[in-house]
Specification:
By secondary structure, the protein is an alpha+beta fold. The protein folds into three domains: about 180 residues, Penicillin-binding protein 2a (Domain 2), CATH 3.90.1310; about 350 residues, DD-peptidase/beta-lactamase superfamily (Beta-lactamase, 3-Layer(aba) Sandwich), CATH 3.40.710; about 120 residues, Trypsin Inhibitor V, Chain A, CATH 3.30.10. It is about 30% helix and about 25% strand. The protein has 21 helices and 33 strands. The longest helix has 21 residues. Keywords: Membrane. Its main location: membrane. It comes from Solibacillus palustris. It is found in: Membrane.
Length: about 725
């Protein structure tokens, strides 16, 4: 017995020693399981990165919302007088149907599942609930209805470059993990960069869930997704959206396209289309998920004559005063006609271009030859992708299969392009021959560290024409608007000289056989720039199949968008409404390290408006930087040390106000857009505390726009490519 019990004791002792030494029992690590028993924590949710415009205005961000849950198990209720589960499913379904987008019978089915569950949710209908709706539901005192805080992707601007921005939705996988996923546009393209990584807070607790004394809290910080800054300007984008919405309501076209760009850099300042949708609700997103500016091709119509003439001019084949017989041109058995069928007799090529004569272009092709034109069209980037930082870009086709195709291409029929190709090609004419690649991403920033992950720079795509050719083309394009024979007089803008070309193109039938025909069946467009002598903006507007009135021309809806956007944008950009060629200009030097008094005197003598941020002394920072050229009256910000005296913000643009706010670090609260109307702190006040300075702005429409003039005399309808011009092959 002694040996038996002694052996058992030794065996038990050896087991204790073994467990103590290894910490493992039957493959289970005791320390790990003990920690898991007493260790608890919760996830620290990471934010999806923001999408912002060039001035850091939010376009898309995460916001707090709520998730609706219904507890249906009776086990949740301990006191029948205070039920914690859904008691009356019919009443609950009826009440909830008033507040969430789900039918009453569907809610009732959720509350009465076929198998025993503790709680149920309501899918997308029960997510993204606002605080106001949550309060209204809570006021009903429905037993078993509870809310959990959640995050929702929020688009504060409503319809705003929607096909470019896209949208993201919260999805739940099979394991119950929930995250916001990009489904369309930039939200989908840059989903990986925008998605953050959740963190975790870990702590130790006892069996009753109380925090153990002297326990260490372990925090693994959440890594928020990268922020994406776009080249879009919120104000200019809003000008475009508002104008397109007005025209869309008035003329109910089949579709519309609008693009605004900076010809000096290739930056896209605004981009939109119709039909469109609200990314917050997806209302209006029926069929087309494509960004038409980049992913769809069109036959451009007479806007393409811009590049036909540019090719002739640059190759020394443009003779504006030479004469030709207008009206019709025969290519073998095919007849090409001018839009008024009979032409204007024998006229000059200059007048032919101003009148948008098709036969002027066909005769011009005979002068320079197809090989020359084809080379220039290739140099302008047609038939190939621009390389814009967006996927699924279409390339279009320059059609030269048959002789008739070569001739119709000269006036934009039969060959296809994308709107973004037209913008890129026009940048060469607006930018003294240098063609700039379009882009929409300005930079990508890691908000956790402030590191700039990606920074875009302007890319020159070549120089398809000489600077002198570009200057002459701008003058020629201006003559279509201001010349006696010009057919684009509707595009005149008070205070600014515009250059550009109208377009009217037939649209292929739905079955792909032939073209639709009729006043309300064409694609009307305008490709232009302003100011004409030194363009700051290039704009393309296209309206397909608008419902025109009896006395209206196709250029009416197009000009209503173009004129509004360009005039408002130029005023917002502080481009003086005068002949910019006569405005005095000044190239800024490096003023950092200089004394503010002497620099202020120098700048004022040059007609500029210096703004001192600080006290008189050494300049530590300036804006704009060295090398920038300002026109007379432009603002130069000079930062020094010391107390800041508030200037007069009267008539300052939003852009200048944002620059001042950034340099001064003053708590300026900005309301509205456009130009400053009032400020809460008077000029000359020395800032000594952190009280906010409230500045209110008004839009240029409110400040500048006058009532519309009487309708101009109706011009000839521009109809290009009649059915007999483009026979079916």
């Amino acid at each position: 017995m002694f040996l038996l019990f002694g052996g058992l004791f030794l065996l038990l002792y050896w087991r204790f020693v073994s467990i103590q030494a290894t910490g493992v029992v039957k493959g289970h690590e005791l320390e790990t399981e003990a920690l898991s028993k007493y260790e608890s924590g919760y996830a620290l949710s990471a934010d999806r990165g923001k999408i912002l415009d060039r001035n850091a205005n939010v376009i898309a961000e995460d916001t707090l919302s709520y998730r609706l849950v219904a507890v249906i198990s009776e086990e949740a209720t301990e006191n029948e007088k205070n039920p914690r589960h859904v008691v009356d499913t019919a009443k609950t379904a009826s009440e909830l149907a008033k507040y969430i987008p789900m039918d009453e019978d569907k809610i009732y089915e959720r509350l009465n599942p076929s198998k025993q569950l503790y709680q149920v949710e309501f899918g997308l209908a029960g997510r993204g609930i606002s605080h106001d709706v949550k309060k209204q539901i809570e006021a009903l005192n429905l037993p078993g209805i509870i809310f959990f805080s959640d995050k929702k992707r929020y688009y504060p601007n409503g319809v705003f470059a929607s096909h470019l921005i896209g949208f993201a939705l919260r999805e739940t996988d099979e394991e119950g993990k929930s995250e916001v996923v990009g489904k369309m546009g930039l939200e989908s393209i840059y989903d990986k960069q925008l998605t953050g990584t959740d963190g975790k807070l870990t702590y130790q607790r006892d069996a009753r869930n109380y925090l153990l004394p002297n326990s260490n809290n372990i925090v693994q910080e959440a890594q928020h997704g990268n922020d994406i800054y776009l080249t879009l300007d919120k104000t200019i984008q809003n000008f475009l959206e508002d104008a397109m919405s007005r025209v869309n309501t008035k003329y109910t076209p089949q579709s519309m396209i609008g693009v605004v760009a900076d010809p000096k850099t290739g930056e896209i300042l605004a981009m939109s289309q119709r039909p469109t949708f609200n990314p917050d609700t997806r209302e209006g997103l029926d069929g087309n998920w494509l960004n038409d500016v980049v992913e769809n091709t069109i036959e451009p119509g007479s806007t393409f004559k811009t590049f036909t003439v540019a090719a002739a001019m640059d190759s020394d084949n443009w003779f504006p005063n030479a004469k030709y017989k207008s009206g019709q041109y025969t290519v073998y058995k095919d007849v090409i006609r001018d839009h008024n069928r009979y032409g204007w007799g024998t006229i000059s090529y200059l007048e032919g271009f101003q009148r948008s004569s098709n036969t002027a272009m066909t005769n011009l092709l005979d002068v320079m030859g197809w090989d020359t034109l084809e080379k220039y069209l290739d140099d302008f980037g047609f038939g190939q992708k621009t390389g814009i930082d967006l996927p699924n870009e279409a390339s279009g086709i320059i059609n030269s299969r048959y002789p008739i195709d070569k001739y119709t291409t000269t006036f934009g029929q039969g060959s296809t392009v994308t709107p973004i190709q037209l913008i890129q090609a026009l940048s060469a004419i607006a930018n003294d021959g240098k063609m700039m690649q379009p882009y929409v991403i300005d930079k990508i920033v890691n908000p956790n560290t402030g590191e700039v992950v990606m920074n875009s720079e302007p890319v020159e795509k070549g120089q398809p024409i000489k600077a002198e050719t570009a200057k002459k083309m701008r003058e020629l394009l201006a003559s279509t608007i201001y010349g006696e024979a010009g057919n684009a007089k509707r595009f005149q803008i008070e205070g600014y000289e515009v250059a550009g070309k109208t377009g009217t193109a037939q649209m292929p039938k739905a079955n792909g056989r032939g073209y639709d025909w009729g006043k309300n069946e064409f694609l009307y467009s305008f490709l232009g720039m302003a100011p004409a002598d030194d363009p700051q903006l290039i704009v393309y507007i296209a309206v397909a199949k608008p419902k025109l009135g009896a006395t209206e021309a196709g250029s009416d809806p197009v000009s209503q968008v173009f004129n509004s956007v360009v005039q408002n944008s130029l005023k917002y950009m502080n481009i003086n409404p005068t002949d910019t060629a006569e405005v005095k200009k000044k190239e800024l030097a490096n003023y950092v390290g200089e004394h503010s008094d002497s620099i202020i005197t120098e700048l004022e003598a040059d007609g500029l408006h210096p703004v001192l941020i600080g006290e008189s002394g050494e300049i530590t920072e300036q804006f704009p930087a060295q090398g920038k050229v300002l026109t007379q009256g432009g603002i130069v910000f000079l930062k020094t040390a010391g107390a800041i005296t508030v200037p007069s913000f009267e008539k300052w643009s939003l852009r200048n106000l944002l620059v001042y706010k950034s340099l001064s670090n003053l708590p300026i609260e900005i309301f509205g857009e456009g130009f400053v109307e009032s400020q809460s702190v008077s000029q000359g006040t020395i800032i000594s505390d952190g009280a906010p300075i409230v500045v209110k702005l008004k839009t240029p429409e409110e400040q500048y726009l006058t009532p519309p003039a009487e309708d101009m005399e109706l011009e000839d309808e521009i109809v290009e490519g009649e059915e007999q011009q483009l026979p079916e092959e």
